[in-house]
Specification:
Blueprint (H helix, E strand, L loop, with lengths): L8 E5 L6 H6 L8 E9 L6 H9 L3 E6 L4 E4 L4 H6 L6 E7 L2 H8 L7
Parallel strand pairs: 1-2
Antiparallel strand pairs: 2-5, 3-4, 3-5
């Protein structure tokens, strides 16, 4: 029996220095709960490996901040990341969830420009 209830609402920030995919693989049980993963897409990774894995190998939907409209948008196509990831020296957070609770919250986050 695990320490985490499937009814808990959880935010998991993955900061595992390039091991995001392995961390997600190891958390299969959590994917059926009320969880949102925040993972980093490295700006220099033109294959978008983390988001590609999440979209192809998990039931999660992926959201990313789209600077064009200052909103978190559903990532429907990986080519969107080609446009968003403009700086190869930084990381870009993506939010992965299959929870309607977390999806609604991600979509409603107000983003302000600095």
């Amino acid at each position: 029996m695990g320490l985490i209830s499937s009814r808990q609402k959880l935010v998991v920030k993955l900061d595992v220095e390039g091991m995001e995919i392995d961390a997600i693989k190891g958390s299969k049980r959590l994917l059926d709960s009320e969880i949102v993963f925040i993972a980093e897409e490295h700006g220099s990774d033109r294959s978008h490996a983390v988001s590609r894995f999440i979209l192809n190998e998990t039931p999660c939907r992926v959201f990313v901040l789209d600077p064009r409209n200052s909103r978190y948008e559903l990532l429907a196509d990986l080519s969107t990341l080609d446009r968003i990831k403009t700086n190869t020296a930084i990381g870009y957070n993506v939010f992965a969830t299959n929870s309607p609770f977390w999806e609604e919250r991600i979509k409603s986050v107000p983003v302000t420009r600095h």
